[in-house]
Automatic annotation (TrEMBL):
Regions of compositional bias (Basic residues) in chain numbering: 1-10
Transmembrane intervals: 39-65
Name of the gene encoding the protein in the UniProt record: MOGS
InterPro entries linked to this entry: Glyco_hydro_63N, Glyco_hydro_63N_sf, Glycoside_hydrolase_63
Record has Transmembrane helix as a keyword: yes
Protein name (record): Mannosyl-oligosaccharide glucosidase
Ranges of residues in domain Glycosyl hydrolase family 63 N-terminal: 94-195
Biased composition (Basic and acidic residues): 17-33
Compartment(s) of residence: Endoplasmic reticulum membrane
Record's compositionally biased regions (Polar residues): 206-219
GO molecular function, one term: Glc3Man9GlcNAc2 oligosaccharide glucosidase activity
Pfam families: Glyco_hydro_63N
Gene Ontology CC: one annotated term: endoplasmic reticulum membrane
């Protein structure tokens, strides 16, 4: 009996075997495998996120590049108009015109270096301080209403401009002839309102320049 008892005592119990496995790092190995799996999942998720961002940005860039390319690429068909279609030799009636929508009244040529004309005026003595010069159409200058009463787009036009107590009427007429789009004439009429007395006449100036519209200067 003593020997059997000694044999039973010498055999390790289940709890002892579990403790022994824990001491040898069994659960630690299982935890290491679980951490590696979780790290792999995170890496895959991060790669998917980065790939989605790259594809989204590249798609936006490709779409923008395609639109720009379409905007600057000429159509393969032949031009509807010849390169010199705006020259006085091809379209003399349209060479001169009121092609200046940003000024109250002006004309220009259809050419790469156009000749520009315009009208300036100012009322003196009506308000204290420096008189307000009228030339370009400004949102807050208080001029209006104004607009064309008649205009055929080619040879004549008449418009009215209301500037406070003054009413301006601008007219132009063209006639064909010559090698530079024909001749044209202006007429500007200024009338004060009948109910207002003693308004001094405005100062007026014609402008003429060659080049972009920003280079106007009184002549």
């Amino acid at each position: 009996m003593a020997r059997g008892e000694r044999r039973r005592r010498g055999a390790p119990a289940d709890g002892a075997r579990t403790a022994e496995r824990a001491a040898r790092g069994g659960p630690a190995r299982r935890d290491g495998r679980g951490g590696s799996a979780r790290g792999a999942v995170r890496g895959v998720a991060l790669a998917v996120l980065v790939l989605s961002l790259v594809l989204g940005l590249s798609g936006s860039w490709l779409l923008a590049w395609h639109r720009v390319r379409r905007a600057v690429t000429l159509h393969s068909a032949s031009p509807a108009l010849p390169p010199d279609s705006s020259s006085p030799s091809v379209a003399p009636d349209l060479f001169w015109g009121t092609y200046r929508p940003h000024v109250y009244f002006g004309m220009k040529t259809r050419s790469p270096q156009p000749l520009l004309t315009g009208l300036m005026w100012a009322q003196q003595g009506t308000t204290p301080g420096t008189p307000k010069l009228r030339h370009t159409c400004e949102q807050g200058d208080g001029v209006g209403p104004y607009g064309w009463e008649f205009h055929d787009g080619v040879s004549f036009g008449r418009q009215h401009i209301q500037d406070g107590a003054l009413r301006l009427t601008t007219e132009f007429v063209k006639r064909p002839g010559g090698q530079h789009g024909g001749d044209w004439s202006w007429r500007v009429t200024v009338e004060p309102q009948a109910s207002v007395q003693g308004i001094p006449p405005p100062s007026m100036a014609a402008t003429m320049s060659s080049g972009p519209p920003t280079q106007d200067s009184p002549c």
